[in-house]
Amino acid sequence: MKLIIGLGNPGKAYEDTRHNIGFKVVDYLASQWNAPLTQSKFKGMYSISHRPEGKVMLLKPLTYMNLSGETVSALMDYYGIELKDIIVIYDDLDLPAGQLRLRQKGSAGGHNGIKSLIQHLGTQEFNRLRIGISRPPAGMKVPDYVLQRFSKEEIPEVADAIKKSAAACETWLFKPYLEVMNQFNGT
């Protein structure tokens, strides 16, 4: 089984914030696949789809960003999912809004959700799909910025990034991740 993980924070207050773009991609896939996240286990909401490429789990950890690794590692252990079969989708301050960057490993780069995953998985080597949210304007603190909603000007490029991210995830179901990286990086 493959596991597509979108990082974010639960609750209406965080629903459309920059930090929740990973959730938005998983929600988009769930809608496209008619696979609502109705199952709950280990503080996460998920669904399992039987796709032509095999079984795929869509997951939104509900532990808040800083503890995402708890849910992911528990579900991976429970279902016997290997590291090579996961992809984590999350926001990135260092990329322009809407730009994608796919990697197979790396540090947390200051992202607390990824820090938690690295801690609980015991490795930095797992597939990632980062979506740019740009840097905050001068004088604004990063926590305030990531918990803010996208501007009207950014919404079209963010919507496009969500669709491209979903397409990258779907491509990964039948192609090696390196090929997916070559196809979608920088789009």
UniProtKB/TrEMBL annotation:
Chain positions of site Discriminates between blocked and unblocked aminoacyl-tRNA: 9
Its assembly, as annotated, is:
Monomer.
- What keywords were assigned to this record? Cytoplasm, Hydrolase, RNA-binding, tRNA-binding
- According to UniProt, where does the site described as Stabilizes the basic form of H active site to accept a proton lie? 91
> Which Enzyme Commission number(s) are on file for it?
3.1.1.29
Question: What lineage, starting at the top, does this entry show?
Answer: Bacteria, Bacillati, Bacillota, Bacilli, Bacillales
Q: Which GO terms describe its cellular component?
A: cytoplasm
According to its UniProt record, which residues of this chain constitute the active site?
19
Q: Which reaction does this enzyme catalyse, per its entry? A: an N-acyl-L-alpha-aminoacyl-tRNA + H2O = an N-acyl-L-amino acid + a tRNA + H(+)
For biological process, the GO terms are: protein quality control for misfolded or incompletely synthesized proteins; rescue of stalled ribosome
Name by which UniProt lists this protein: Peptidyl-tRNA hydrolase
Q: Which CDD domains match?
A: PTH (cd00462)
Which species expresses this protein natively? Planococcus antarcticus DSM 14505
User: Where along this sequence does the record place binding of tRNA?
Assistant: 14, 64, 66, 112
Molecular function terms from GO: peptidyl-tRNA hydrolase activity; tRNA binding
Q: Which PANTHER family match?
A: PEPTIDYL-TRNA HYDROLASE
SUPFAM superfamilies named among the record's database cross-references:
Peptidyl-tRNA hydrolase-like
UniProt-annotated location(s): Cytoplasm
Name the family: Belongs to the PTH family.
Q: What is its main location?
A: cytoplasm
Q: Does the keyword Cytoplasm apply?
A: yes
The entry's function note states:
Catalyzes the release of premature peptidyl moieties from peptidyl-tRNA molecules trapped in stalled 50S ribosomal subunits, and thus maintains levels of free tRNAs and 50S ribosomes. Hydrolyzes ribosome-free peptidyl-tRNAs (with 1 or more amino acids incorporated), which drop off the ribosome during protein synthesis, or as a result of ribosome stalling.
